[in-house]
Write a structure and sequence with these properties.
The complex is a heterodimer of chains A (371) and B (344). Chain A is 43% helix and 9% strand. Chain A has 371 residues and is α/β, with parallel strands linked by helices. Chain B has 15 helices and 14 strands. In chain B, the strands form three sheets. Chain B has a seven-stranded mixed sheet, with helices on both faces. With 344 residues, chain B is α/β, with parallel strands linked by helices. The chains are: A alpha/beta (371), B alpha/beta (344). Chains A and B meet through α7 and α8 of A and α4, α6 and α7 of B.
Chain lengths: 371, 344
Amino acid sequence: MIRDQGPAFLTDRIPDPGPRILARTEHVALTIRYRYTGEGAAGFERYHGSHTPEFLRGLFFSMLRIRRIEEEIERRYHQDQMKTPIHLVIGQEATSVGACAALAQTDLLYSSHRTHGNYLAKGGDLKAMLAEMHCRITGCVGSRGGSMHLIDKRVGMAGTSAIVGGAVPIAVGAGLAAQMKGEDRVTMVFLGDATTEEGVTSESLNFAALKRVPVVFFCENNFYSVQSPLSTRQPARDLHRWAATYQMPSVAVDGVNVLAVHDAAARAVARARSGEGPTFIEAPVYRLRAHGGSGDDTHTGYRHIAEREHWEAFDPVALFEHVLRKKDLLDDQALDGIERQIANEIVEAFEFALNSPNPTKEDLTRHVYAE
Amino acid sequence: MPWDEGLVNSLVYDAPDPSEGRIVSYVKAINEALTIGLANDPAVFVMGQGVDDPSAMFGTTRGLQHHFGPDRVFDTPLSEEGMMGVCTGAAMNGMRPVFMHNRPDFVLLAFNQLVTHAAKFHFMDNGQTTVPMVVWAAIGRGWGSGAQHSQAIQGLLLGVPGLKIVMPSTPYDAKGLLLSAILDNNPVCVFEHRWLMKKDGIVPDGFYRVPLGKGTYRRRGRDVTIAGASHAIELGLQAATQLEAEGISADVIDLRTIKPMDEHIILESLEKTGRIVAVDTAWMKGGVCAEIGCLAAEKGFHFLKAPVARVGLPDIPTPAGYTLEQHYYPDAARIAAAARSLLR
């Protein structure tokens, strides 16, 4: 179910803080603490003109593919074959897909613990990802990383950190390297709302702005750090306004609207590529599952079921499907074909992972030190 | 720091005989290594708080920005963790950063990036990247440096796989080891000691390397082994001179690199002497002293004629005042006394 809803995104999303407002926040927390403030399906209109049908269908395919992969991982997780923590991106597909569509394969992406969507959207190999999650030698990092370290440098999935904020200065360093070597290469780093609380993020934004490093900070604001809401961690503020104080362009974009995400990312990437320096993008988006593991944990009480249901109405995959159908770019037959293709790929990839050999004792001692 | 210049000067050794070669100051030796590193490879860059200021990191970075430009030699914000991450990211992408700190105490602010990121990435991504970077800092001592400006943190890092740790004791080694560190494809910590930095020594002109992981004999003896690195070797050599007058001869082993540690040279000497005094500029517990002692017990037990002795810092933070400090730092006499006790 898709509802179009105003007011326009970005307009006074968070009111001035004050005693009255804080009291109201307490009340709202009982039901919906964080409300979707985008434009729903109507928000796609302004971006359609510039894209080919192939590009739009490609974005949808990528988003649906990530969704189905995540659902299958979730379905199988209790079987305990994947002995690795998982951080599902169900509900956050539009950010990975929209942002990565603005990057060239030679551009670099750094990421956090929530890597599945980033890795797949950047072009990472699914078989190697699932093999990694099954701790096999054929995994993308040979069973050394698990799901929090999905890395594939061949496609620019350059590094991840399971420490919140850990990848942020590293991405700035990667950008600095490209700048020093005169390479035409942009680096993007995905971070969450809690990452803006880490001191190292402030340090990284400051240095990136100072040196005009070709880097894009992409902040997925999903409002919760594990089960801690933003309101217990930060004063009421817009994260992108905070970032703007580091003297770089900083924008907010509807995180469930893949075209809006792509547009903002493309502008930031073009700016970085032309030597004008970093950009910060905040994309509010909702994690429809628990922080880690399979299933949703809303019932434990840290957020209200009404809030999740509110955001489920703006499911980024369903929303884009609705938009494409309305534009006659997708019908039942086409969707069936896509679903079948994805399902076959997933089955094949799981088979590959489960049939792959384990690493040996000799593998353990490799790559502790470089030659 | 200017206020301990006098103290440092008071410890300067007699200059070596000039007929043995070119005599250069310890600081100049480091400066030469950085100059050669920058000149030989455009991927090398030097950064740190104040590397371009008039004090020039004790003089070690003097003139570098003038020669190589502000893009390759630059001052940084006071953001130790962030800048360590920037070095890590740059190193993972084809650069060879040298990140200089006035004191190891400041490196503690950056442990998350150094320990959990720089040291781990090559392993975590299954060898897809290397992290060739140098983290340089000078251990302070004396004149009020106290608990927060004189920490020798090498012991905290000994147990971190993926790191290498270098601790030179001579100008020759300071240059040759730093050049090896810059050329190494791993994160390498170079911990200098402030009290060595006014020392002069014979330093070859141009490029040469002292290999990482190889110790050397500074003095040969029969009765006892004194093993350690950095300024502790200065004291060890003084102790050996005192002992010689009493008819006790000591092997003095300068490990030069404490991670990886040259186990072979320690065991070779221990086999001969049967007695070992482990010395370090840092705390005895869980550090270089402990590791040498453990090695002796684990792999050299059958050589031992006496218990292992350790001479390092007690399990106490460094006091600032000289009135307390005189009871805190070990000196040559303490090392000599430890050696003597093994021969009783």
